[in-house]
């Protein structure tokens, strides 16, 4: 985008000149819709069943614990019950929150990348030690038995996990700063190579019939009222927020606003692309933040691209060349960059007319 787009609390947009890519923009998702969805996700019959099961298990466990012969054994069982109960609740909440994407390959790739980044972080070693010390502090404050016979299983597991992380992050630091070997870079390279091999095998499989997907019409010349008509040109319909979100969860991203149902203008940005942009101070906000950028725009006459949902047409030669060119740079090109590209192309055509000087007075070239 050439301009900066700012959404205030009512999502009113003051600037209307929008070019190819959003820059320095305040981007908001549909927060009210997300809050309503969160409430709907929590108060469901399924969650009620989980709560009922938890209460029943709690009752039986409480009766069982009352049969303990020593105070230490009762305390041990109680600690295990509380810790494992909280872990189960956390797992269920995590599953419900991510149930739409938890079984997709891009989601787990993102989680793996985050874990590798965590292990490679120089501060992880210290933070792991502090967490372990915090665990010991909680154990001490609550008087949890820590003898070999009475130590709760849950505490043993948590203690083992933290010690394991301390050892692993310690090895990573040792190899990085003592031996000069970055283990995490090696793991990332191997993972990327395996991923490429898997993708090549998948690409070689017979293609199935055409499937519907979200695709962005990049010309920022359309109002919201024109958006549906634009999609109809491709025998498609205007995409919904959920469809754009699903595209993001399966690896989609395009750094360009697109009108979407509900008078929203949205575009997804992958975390991996966002992280690359952070290395360029002048471009770190060019494509928003990881996730779904944009939101509701009160003015339907703003001109954006369009997010359509349907069978995506085959890319033209220019489209494919532009895609390859975008792979060469992690940030979108500014109008000045595009103007310079045009000049370079013209200079290439006229390079025979350029005057080159000899290396010196006696020879043309050094070699």
From TrEMBL:
Residues 209-310 form the Link domain. The keyword Membrane applies. GO terms for biological process: cell adhesion. Residues 1-26, 319-340 are annotated as: Disordered. Keywords: Disulfide bond, Membrane, Transmembrane, Transmembrane helix. The chain crosses the membrane at residues 48-65, 77-96, 125-145, 157-179. It holds the Pfam family Xlink. InterPro entries: C-type_lectin-like/link_sf, CTDL_fold, Link_dom. GO terms for molecular function: hyaluronic acid binding. Residues 1-20 have a biased composition (Polar residues). Signal peptide: none annotated. SUPFAM superfamilies: C-type lectin-like. This is Link domain-containing protein.
């Amino acid at each position: 985008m050439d301009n900066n787009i700012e959404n205030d609390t009512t999502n009113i947009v003051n600037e209307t000149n929008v070019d190819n890519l959003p820059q320095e923009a305040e981007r908001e998702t549909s927060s009210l819709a997300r809050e309503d969805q969160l409430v709907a996700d929590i108060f469901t019959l399924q969650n009620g069943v989980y709560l009922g099961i938890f209460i029943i298990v709690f009752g039986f466990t409480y009766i069982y614990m009352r049969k303990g012969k020593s105070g230490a054994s009762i305390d041990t069982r109680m600690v295990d019950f509380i810790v494992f109960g909280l872990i189960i609740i956390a797992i269920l909440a995590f599953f419900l929150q991510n149930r739409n994407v938890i079984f997709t390959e891009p989601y787990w790739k993102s989680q793996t990348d985050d874990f590798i980044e965590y292990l490679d972080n120089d501060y992880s070693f210290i933070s792991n030690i502090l967490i372990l010390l915090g665990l010991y502090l909680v154990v001490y404050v609550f008087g949890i038995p820590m003898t070999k016979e009475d130590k709760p299983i849950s505490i043993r597991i948590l203690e083992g996990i933290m010690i394991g992380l301390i050892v692993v992050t310690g090895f990573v630091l040792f190899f990085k700063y003592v031996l000069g070997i970055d283990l995490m870079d090696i793991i990332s390279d191997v993972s990327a190579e395996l991923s490429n091999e898997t993708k090549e095998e998948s690409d070689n499989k017979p293609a199935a019939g055409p499937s519907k997907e979200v695709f962005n019409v990049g010309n920022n010349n359309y109002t919201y009222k024109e958006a549906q008509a634009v999609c109809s040109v491709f025998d498609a319909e205007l995409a919904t927020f959920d469809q754009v979100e699903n595209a993001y969860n399966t690896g989609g991203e395009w750094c360009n606003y697109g009108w979407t149902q509900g008078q929203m203008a949205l575009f997804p940005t992958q975390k991996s692309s966002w992280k690359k942009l952070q290395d360029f101070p002048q471009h770190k906000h060019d494509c928003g933040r990881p996730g779904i950028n944009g939101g509701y725009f009160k003015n339907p006459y703003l001109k954006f691209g369009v997010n359509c949902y349907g069978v995506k047409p085959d890319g033209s030669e220019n489209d494919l060349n532009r895609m390859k060119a975008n792979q060469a740079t992690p940030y979108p090109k500014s109008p000045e960059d595009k103007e310079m590209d045009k000049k370079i192309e013209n200079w290439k055509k006229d390079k025979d007319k350029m005057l080159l000087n000899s290396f010196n007075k006696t020879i043309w070239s050094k070699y």
